[in-house]
Design a protein that fits this description.
By secondary structure, the protein is an alpha+beta fold. The chain has 6 helices and 4 strands. Strands 2-3-1-4 form a 4-stranded antiparallel beta sheet, with helices on one face. Strand 2 and strand 3 form a beta hairpin. The longest helix is centred in the C-terminal third of the chain and has 16 residues, at 146-161.
């Protein structure tokens, strides 16, 4: 989906000021509330906006240890293992991947001992062959999408000029 300059401005406001009302967004953007609502509806319908909930911190919830656990799965058991991973609350994301391993999970733990317990639980899942764990030391680039949104908006604007 093409994101134009106004969409980019809207998305920037949503990211930078997530608790502002639609009326206030419209005022800040200098557009009609109906125009803004139509844009928001389209961005949601097209899957650009996927949620409106708060961003939560696992560390603030008492789980400061972040690890990436690669999971190797027996052939033909990827779906079953994926379903089983969803039952482990410490797994905050899981992806099918190429390369070393079949799944990559992001795990939040209270401490290293808790992380070991989570890994032991993963190893017990039928279809899991082995795991490999990498512990994150420090976040260098936080999860972000605004630079990507702005890049897409600039590319769309440049294409319209050409």
């Amino acid at each position: 989906m093409a994101v134009d300059e106004l969409d980019t401005r809207i998305l920037r406001l949503l990211i930078e000021q997530p608790r502002t009302s639609v009326r206030e967004y419209a005022r800040l953007l200098g557009i009609a509330r109906g125009t803004l609502q139509a844009r928001l509806d389209r961005l949601e319908r097209d899957g650009v906006i996927t949620g409106t909930g708060p961003a939560l911190s696992p560390a603030a919830l008492g789980h400061p240890v972040l690890a990436f656990v690669h999971v190797e799965v027996t052939q033909g058991h990827l779906d079953e293992v994926g379903d089983a991973l969803a039952a482990v609350p410490e797994i905050i994301e899981a992806f099918s991947i190429t390369g070393g391993g079949d799944l990559l999970t992001r795990v939040a733990a209270r401490d290293n001992g808790h992380l070991e317990d989570v890994i032991q639980r993963l190893i017990q899942i039928p279809g899991v062959v082995r795991t490999r764990t990498e512990v994150a030391l420090r976040e260098r680039v936080p999860h972000r999408l605004l630079p990507l949104v702005e890049s897409v908006g600039r590319a769309t604007a440049a294409a319209k000029r050409d």
